[in-house]
Amino acid sequence: MYDPNSYVNRPLHDRFSDGVTVRAPVEFPVTILGLPGHQGFVVTYSTQDGTDLETVDDMLIPQFPASASVKSNRYYAAYTFDQYLYQSKEDPKQGFGLFGQFGISDGNPNRLYALAMTGIGGMGLIPGRSRDNWGIGYYYAAPSRDLKDSLKTVVDIRDEQGVEVFYNFSVTPWLTIGADLQVIRPSLADDTAVFCGMRTVINF
After folding, report:
1. What CATH code is carried by the domain that includes residue 125?
2. What is the CA radius of gyration of the chain?
3. Pick from 31, 98, 119, 149: most CB atoms within 10 A?
């Protein structure tokens, strides 16, 4: 249970003034064909008020000044999993598997209605590269249908999706250099965004 607002560098005297958020996760170890994994569920519920997304279009009519209505309470529920598809018997840290999360919310006042993420990732498996790790992930995000309908006369809000691919090279036990590629089809832009990057991790 926690406050829906962040109190970083803020006084605590008005904590929980906007409601309370409760998050309840549960996860179970699961073994399939002798390979380990986990499956779980998480539910989040908040009493924090939010903008009623069905009434956002009321603010777009200049001759009838108005404000959007307020909608109470919100929730989000998701199913999560990770599952090895292969695991080295000699070194259990080496292997690869699937992971993912599929969630849905009330869609109003939450601006995101549904979210799906899945991918495959692993560590090692390449001769001489036992400490390297890699992954490929995909996500699909569906904005609130009420928000899309309210703003359809001024902006076309699409479902968003993207792919990320990365590989981390373990140069030494204390130095890792990673390469990353992201391709995103955003909700509010016509062009597909492509990001390439590199990162370095130094362990002291």
Report:
1. 2.40.160.180
2. 22
3. 119
Q: How many domains does the chain have?
A: 1
DSSP helix/strand/coil, 131: coil
Residues paired with residue 137 on neighbouring β-strands, in sequence order? 119, 164
Cα separation of 77 and 165, whole Å? 27
By residue range, what is the domain housing residue 185?
29-37+77-202
Tokens of 183: 């391709």
Q: How confident is the model at residue 159 (pLDDT cuts 50, 70, 90)?
A: very high
Tokens linked to 163: 């792919």
Instruction: Give Cα separations from 191 to 117, 141, 151, 165, 194 (angstroms).
Output: 22, 17, 20, 20, 9
Residue pair 98/119 in contact (Cβ under 8 Å)? The answer is yes
* pTM of the full structure: 0.85
